[in-house]
């Protein structure tokens, strides 16, 4: 017997007929004693259609009400999928995020899972049901409906897998696994059989779109093996798991990632006193804007003044602009510059920290290709460079060719 | 200051633009200190569209999952309406049925309100919000989503008005009030300024489609004045209230109602022993099928055998058929006959019980018009006759002409 969580995205459940196909597939793969939880997204473009409906009323985003609206998308999918299982003779029951026991923060549009009490899920599984849970959503302690932000269904799936101690969390997607780089940019990119949470987290954070960083983090925290595999084939995909569980040779360099959803903001002429930088970043945090790379530089020519450059997701630029207006109006800064034509290219692999030559090699390749590096950031297992978006494909191809040819 | 509950149906909120029009109207009529709760149905044909989606998967109805599906319709409307108020500068908050404190029985598709704890509604009103509540839905004590069945949004509105002690519950509809008969059938029908709960209940039960019986019952129980009025004009409609509150002359006869949603079932040759009739009706009750008129006749020619004829809503015939199959198979009855071509015509008015001539007059008119009466049932304030559906319009016109011409 295995306890398995399976997550299907919106394109896999876009029509009642596709839902029926997912049901057939799940029943075909299911062994008699298996207990199965399925996490689904909203059907096809439902979420976008709901956003469009709201936009006909107002151009602003009203957090709580937008989540009330968007959460209906997944609620439709889970109800239909439960009916489809029942029609196929398989007992099934659907749960909203709240019913599945998911409590989130009250950061609407971007809720974080604070607690997961899966008693109803357990009871329903024990009673012989396949349990279908609405992805992307939860409930605050006050009973308000929240959504988890982009890719939230992955997070729901991994969190539930952790809470019920599932043997594996399967993420069904339109690609057949995790590649050393984006195959659309680097045709010779290779599929990996396994990857560690840490490496996947870096890949995901650095722009590999297959899985959301938060979901990978959650998998690592609860030690849930995550199997990223294709909706369209039964082939094995890529397993994300702890290092010690990996039987294969450890590569030093695992992949090259790119992230085009980057905006760079520079605040010029900040009085160099404690508290100013804090104020900027805490106001951004209040608006739920995540800051990624940060560089602060003290000007030599003008004492007591610093410049701060940082990056955020380009999609969060409008929320950040409000904060920037406020800073411009209230704080004594010289100017604020925004550049939304940036991208980030990253090299990922466990153990890179012990090999300084790798960073040097990466910078050399960028230099050889005439690509200017604006900011560098490093972690235990990655090196990232902020560059102009127009050069990012060339950068990824050159870096991949260099490091994967040498192997 | 007034505390007002306003209910808008699906056609009033069919598009974002219509939602905006409702918002404009509410804000125009609202006095500064008024506290307002709005109950809305799903947009336009949403509910039918969701049913169609489910039918692409299965022909059966799965109660719990169908309610999970249908409840999304109202959730979309409330979120959009709250956004529309906010966009107009009016603080507003939306609540699902469960969030508004509505606890129902777990009769899926047909939940009954068991409890209503409107703390969140009160708090939100106190904080200066217009509160928007999803009609037609509630939550079981276990946290499962239920729907209240046909016309459930009226019930939601009146129940909330009762729980928060509203001054009035306004039901906005596509007609401008309650008429002495259906104006589409009887062109000379007249609009009433007021009607008692009891009379309205009879009119509603007997087929006057403007309001659901359960909503009127709820209004009577909590003594909520109900104002039935037009979405399209600001004219006064019909006020449903207690008799003592009515300032106008009491009419003996208030209206002529018709109900075409009727099926007649006859069970022939039932052993005339205690418990047999009970078994039939309790099995129907288990399937949530309401029985309306009942006639039992003991046959003179054959001792120890009875026939029972009863009526149900024609729309519940398929649910009833399951019970009938079971009865045919398990109980020793001679035959079961089903006639789905019946209708009911009713005369309604407080105080009719003391005037036996009225019943005689009604039977005489039907007889004069060659219309056969199959079953008669009476209450304190109504007389109903089951007749063939093909004669019902003629019957209503003749009865209306007779009683309202005499006045």
From TrEMBL, chains A, B:
This is Aspartokinase. Catalyzes the phosphorylation of the beta-carboxyl group of aspartic acid with ATP to yield 4-phospho-L-aspartate, which is involved in the branched biosynthetic pathway leading to the biosynthesis of amino acids threonine, isoleucine and methionine. Substrate binds at residues 47, 74. GO terms for biological process: diaminopimelate biosynthetic process; homoserine biosynthetic process; lysine biosynthetic process via diaminopimelate; threonine biosynthetic process. Pfam families: AA_kinase (PF00696), ACT_9 (PF22468). SUPFAM superfamilies: ACT-like, Carbamate kinase-like. It comes from the Bacteria. Residues 265-350 form the ACT domain. It catalyses: L-aspartate + ATP = 4-phospho-L-aspartate + ADP. It is an enzyme of class 2 (transferase). Keywords: Amino-acid biosynthesis, ATP-binding, Diaminopimelate biosynthesis, Kinase, Lysine biosynthesis, Nucleotide-binding, Transferase. Its EC number is 2.7.2.4. Pathway: Amino-acid biosynthesis; L-threonine biosynthesis; L-threonine from L-aspartate: step 1/5; Amino-acid biosynthesis; L-methionine biosynthesis via de novo pathway; L-homoserine from L-aspartate: step 1/3; Amino-acid biosynthesis; L-lysine biosynthesis via DAP pathway; (S)-tetrahydrodipicolinate from L-aspartate: step 1/4. The keyword Cytoplasm does not apply. PANTHER family: ASPARTATE KINASE (PTHR21499), ASPARTOKINASE (PTHR21499:SF3). ATP binds at residues 7-10, 173-174, 179, 184.
């Amino acid at each position: 017997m295995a306890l398995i969580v399976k997550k299907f995205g919106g394109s896999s459940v876009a029509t009642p007929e596709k839902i029926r196909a997912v049901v057939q597939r799940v029943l075909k793969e299911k062994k008699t004693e298996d207990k199965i939880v399925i996490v689904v997204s909203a059907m096809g473009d439902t979420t976008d259609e709901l956003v469009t409906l709201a936009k006909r009323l107002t151009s602003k985003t009203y957090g709580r009400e937008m989540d009330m609206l968007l959460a209906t998308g997944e609620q439709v999918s889970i109800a239909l999928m439960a009916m489809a299982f029942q029609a196929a003779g398989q007992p099934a029951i659907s749960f909203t995020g709240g019913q599945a026991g998911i409590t989130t923060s009250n950061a609407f549009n971007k809720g974080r899972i604070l607690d997961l009490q899966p008693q109803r899920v357990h009871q329903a599984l024990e009673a012989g049901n396949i349990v279908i849970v609405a992805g992307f959503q939860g409930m605050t302690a006050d009973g308000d409906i929240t959504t988890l932000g982009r890719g939230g269904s992955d997070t729901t799936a991994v969190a539930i897998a952790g809470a019920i101690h599932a043997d594996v969390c399967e993420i069904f997607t339109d690609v057949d696994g995790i590649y050393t780089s984006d195959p659309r940019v680097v045709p010779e990119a290779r599929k990996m059989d396994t990857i560690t949470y840490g490496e996947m987290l870096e890949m995901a954070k650095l722009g590999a779109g297959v899985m959301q960083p938060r979901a990978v983090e959650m998998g690592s925290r609860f030690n849930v093996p995550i199997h990223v595999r294709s909706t369209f084939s039964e082939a094995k995909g890529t397993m994300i798991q702890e290092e010690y569980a990996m039987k294969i040779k450890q590569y030093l360099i695992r992949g090259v990632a790119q992230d085009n959803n980057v905006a760079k903001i520079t605040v010029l002429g900040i009085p160099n006193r404690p508290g100013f930088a804090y104020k900027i970043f805490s106001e951004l945090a209040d608006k739920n804007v995540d800051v990624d790379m940060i560089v602060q530089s003290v000007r030599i020519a003008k004492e007591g003044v610093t410049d701060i450059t940082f990056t955020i997701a380009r999609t969060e630029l409008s929320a950040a602009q409000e904060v920037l207006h406020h800073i411009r109006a209230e704080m004594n800064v010289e100017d604020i510059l925004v550049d939304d034509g940036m991208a980030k290219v990253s090299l990922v692999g466990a153990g890179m920290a012990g090999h300084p030559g790798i960073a040097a090699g990466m910078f050399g390749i960028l230099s050889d290709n005439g690509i200017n590096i604006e900011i560098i950031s490093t972690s235990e297992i990655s090196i990232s460079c902020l560059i102009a978006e127009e050069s990012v494909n060339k950068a990824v191809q050159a870096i991949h060719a260099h490091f994967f040819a040498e192997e």
